[in-house]
Design a protein that fits this description.
Layout: H1 9-18, H2 23-46, H3 54-71, H4 81-96, H5 100-114
Helix pairs in contact: 1-4, 1-5, 2-3, 2-4
């Protein structure tokens, strides 16, 4: 898939979700991000600064292979790092709120229109 361009985050969001069309990818993102956050929080509380690297190392270290091996695409982070970070947070909030089915619908719609 070629590099996409977007005028706004709102335009980017459905594309971002489509790049996470498979539930396994979304759940791996969730697990990696929450584990990375927990390690970073531990680093802050304990004063062990090396654990602050937990979020980017564990978060991206689990998410990127999911793109390559499950989705068979490149992470949106490569072309849109700031919006991807915002998208990750929005996607995880929706998943934690029990709205994963909405993400699947957004992805399916974008892929049907643009795939």
């Amino acid at each position: 898939m070629t590099q996409q361009t977007f005028a706004s985050y709102e335009e980017f969001w459905p594309y971002y979700v489509a790049m996470h069309s498979k539930a396994a990818t979304r759940w791996i993102h969730l697990a990696g991000t929450l584990t990375g956050l927990a390690l970073s929080a531990y680093g802050l509380v304990s004063g062990r600064k090396r654990y602050l690297a937990g979020l980017p190392v564990v978060g991206y270290g689990t998410a990127w292979p999911a793109h390559f091996f499950i989705e068979k695409n490149n992470p949106a982070t490569f072309g849109h790092p700031a919006w991807s970070l915002r998208g990750d947070a929005q996607m995880i909030r929706m998943m934690l709120a029990g709205r994963d089915h909405e993400l699947a619908e957004i992805a399916a719609k974008w892929l049907a229109e643009n795939g």
